[in-house]
Write a structure and sequence with these properties.
60s Ribosomal Protein L30, Chain: A; globular; alpha/beta; 32% helix; four-stranded mixed β-sheet
């Protein structure tokens, strides 16, 4: 039966919208199992927020994460497929992406920039997509769609190892050094063999598989790859990195591996992590119309028990925050923030520092203020702001000394660890770095009670906003003495040494 290109385009649009707000049920089950098993209070708290956010996003049909990702589309087109009208597949996919990201009921954040070496201007509709097409036997079209966030994509690793190298040692070493910017717990995709570019493609494609590590452990490994999957998962979890890098027993929920024949002199290997915003779906078109997707069952999402407010949780008024108060915070402290905070991420920091270098007056005072590294999704209906989870704090490290020294900024909020230069600057200026939970964007947005743009409106989602927040949950990651939870917290949960030097 001839295939109508419009069916493929509509199916892609539906799929992209669905994965923006709906985790795969197998991933939710794996998260819940990790929550049940977790012994670290801080990691369990992060998992609670991630699971609560997942349920809220599913019910509200709003993005799981503010970074709604780069769209990856894998097409397997039967060689016997006939079309009613021969399509330009790349143009068709990009139109579906544009339609999905500009959807009025659930607009998604456009993150794709054109001219990466020049102006780096946002395309405005999240195109172009990354399209991979393969001709196969048959007369059907098999499609897999994934939306991959920048935080996890930035942690991709690649090497050409010696043929006799130990793959597990290499993976464990790389994960131990990746930090928490990829928002664990998640899934590791590994491609071994082929060529340089094929290893990368296999690693990305492997992430499309179901989370089935519990089933694999129950039945036991049946071949070398399955044995390797379990071995890598155990060794990585023994690192003690935990949810959001806070220290805990679960860092990866699954490890997926694809292999291919390779040159006798080579062992190409690619490692691509998938974050807590695990977004992908597959479907098959037979020529009988567009794909339909069954609505999720609410029962697939557990109602996790939120810990009662502990006496140790500090309620912090941002409007009266002082350096003296900050000096009393310790890493791991749980804070609930209220009052006014600023927002700003890469582009805003870059522009602020350029203005400082030129001696220009800033359009907004940062003295005594807290800045949140965020680029929110556009609001719809009665929302104050769309999903507004943190971006990776490490990317702001190069600006931290100048920001603290010349603006009077006193604290920052992001996700993941800070590097040595940022930690030294924080210690020098007796400031603090806080983390909000990556993967809890919709939940976090509920604590934002008002929002207005103060400066750099031309930067779109990267403009400087002022949020008025109530009970905004954060954890102290780097305190005024330069202690880092991402360095100290992991030590309490590490169960095995790394073998590589």
């Amino acid at each position: 039966m001839p295939h109508n290109p419009d069916d493929l385009q509509l199916s892609l649009r539906r799929a992209i919208q669905l994965i923006s707000w709906c985790h795969p049920s197998d991933f939710v089950r794996a998260l819940h199992n990790a929550w049940i098993a977790e012994k670290s209070p801080t990691a369990k708290g992060a998992l609670t927020q991630i699971l609560t956010n997942s349920r809220m996003s599913m019910l509200g049909r709003r993005p799981i994460c503010q970074d709604t990702g780069v769209v990856n589309v894998f097409l397997k087109i039967g060689i016997s497929v006939e079309w009613t009208t021969p399509p330009d597949l790349t143009a068709l996919v990009n139109q579906a992406v544009a339609d999905a990201y500009l959807d009025q009921d659930n607009p998604l954040r456009a993150s794709m920039i054109v001219d990466p070496l020049g102006a780096r201007q946002n395309s405005g509709n999240n195109t172009p997509a990354m399209v991979h097409t393969e001709l196969v036997t048959g007369d059907q079209i098999e499609v897999h769609v994934a939306a991959k966030g920048g935080g996890s994509e930035n942690k991709t690793q690649f090497a050409v190892l010696l043929p006799e190298a130990n793959i597990t040692d290499w993976v464990v070493d790389k994960v131990s050094k990746m930090g928490a910017g990829w928002c664990p717990p998640g899934v590791l995709g590994i491609g071994v063999g082929g060529s340089v570019e094929h290893a990368m493609l296999m690693a990305k494609r492997s992430l499309l598989g179901p989370v089935d590590m519990p089933k694999l452990r129950t039945k036991g490994p049946q071949n070398r790859i399955e044995k390797l999957r379990i071995e890598i998962a155990d060794r990585v979890n023994d690192l003690g990195i935990g949810a959001q890098g806070l220290g805990g027993i679960t860092t990866v929920l699954d490890v997926k591996i694809e292999t291919a024949p390779t040159h006798a002199a080579s062992l190409p290997i690619a490692l691509i992590p998938n974050c807590a915003a695990n977004r992908h779906i597959g479907f098959t078109l037979t020529g009988n119309g567009p794909a339909t997707f069954d609505p999720p069952k609410t029962s697939d999402w557990p109602e996790v028990i939120t810990a009662k407010t502990d006496a140790n949780i500090r309620h912090v008024d941002l409007n009266t925050l002082s350096k003296e108060q900050i000096s009393k915070w310790k890493i791991g402290d749980q804070l609930l923030l209220r009052g006014k905070m600023l927002t700003g991420r890469d582009a805003a920091h870059r522009r602020i520092c350029q203005m400082l270098d030129k001696g220009e007056e800033l359009p907004v005072s940062l003295k005594g203020r807290v800045i949140y590294y965020v680029g929110p999704v556009d609001a719809v209906r009665d929302e104050i702001v769309g999903p507004a989870g943190p971006t990776t704090a490490t990317r702001m490290d190069p600006y931290t000394e100048q920001m603290l020294d010349q603006t009077g900024l006193v604290a920052m909020i992001g996700k993941a660890e800070r590097g040595p230069l940022a930690i030294e600057a924080i210690k020098k200026h007796k400031a603090a770095s806080l983390i909000a939970t990556g993967g809890a964007a919709f939940l976090i947005s509920q604590s934002i009670k008002s929002s207005r743009v103060l400066a750099f409106e031309d930067l779109g989602m990267e403009a400087i906003h002022e949020f008025d927040v109530l009970d905004f949950p954060v954890t102290v990651a780097v305190d005024a003495k330069g202690n880092s939870i991402h360095l100290e917290g992991i030590k309490d949960w590490a169960r095995a040494p790394i073998l590589l030097p």
